Amino acid sequence: MLKNLLKEVISLVAGKQAEDIINILDTQKYINEFVIAKKLNLTINQARNILYKISDHGLVSSIRKKDKRKGWYTYFWKIEILKSLEFLRENLLKKIENTEHQMKSRETKRFYVCPRCHIELSEENALINNFTCNECGSILVLKDNTKLIKDLRKNKERLEKDLGIVKEEILKEKEKEEKKRIKEIKKEKRKTKRKSQISKLSKWKIKKGQSSNLKKLKNTKPKKTKGRKKTSKKRR
Ligand SMILES: [Zn+2]
Fold this sequence. Notes:
The chain is mainly alpha-helical. 66% of the residues lie in helices and 10% in strands.
C-alpha cells in the first residue's frame, strides 16, 4: 500500500514514467545515483533529472561523497516517506476542494449547451449569445447537471477514501519515527550512564592514586615527581 502511494507521489512530481524509482530508493539507507540509473536503465543525467524534480519538493534527501581519485562528487539518495505522504495529503485536499467547488457551481448555477456541438456555456454567456450556438446557430438548451453532479460526488467520495488511507499511513509513519526517537534517547542515556560510571571509576582511581602519590611526595624528594609525569605521558 505504502509503495503504491509513494509511486503516486512520484508520478505527480516527476511523471508516470518515473514512478519505478520507488522500487529502488530505500527509506533508511542512501542509494548511489549510478546504481539508481543502472537499475532504471537510464543514463546518469536522466536519473538525476528525475531525482532533482523530486528533490525540488523536498521528497528525497541526499548525501555526497567525494571520489578521492577522480575528485568529483557522487550523490546518494533516500526517499523521505513522511514528507511524500504529506505532499500526497495536500494534493488530495486540493482535489477535494476543487471537486466541492465544481459541485456547488453545478448545483447553484445554470448552464446551457448546444444539442449539436455539445459546447457548454454559462448562463451569462448564453444570454450574451441570445441562447444560440456560435458555431452552428442551434438554439441552446438548459443543461441537466444531475449526472455530472452525481459523478462529481462519486469522485469526491473516492478522493476522501484515498485521503483516509494516506492519513492512516502518515500516522503509522509518525509512530515509527517516535519509536525510533525513543530508542535513540534510551541508547544515549545508556551511553551517558556508562560514561559517568567510567568517570566515577577513574575519579576514584585518581583519588586513590593521588593519595598514594601524596604519601610518596611527603616521603620523597621532588625529583621523583618528574619521573611520575614521564610515566603518565607514556601511558597515554
Ligand atoms: Zn452548435
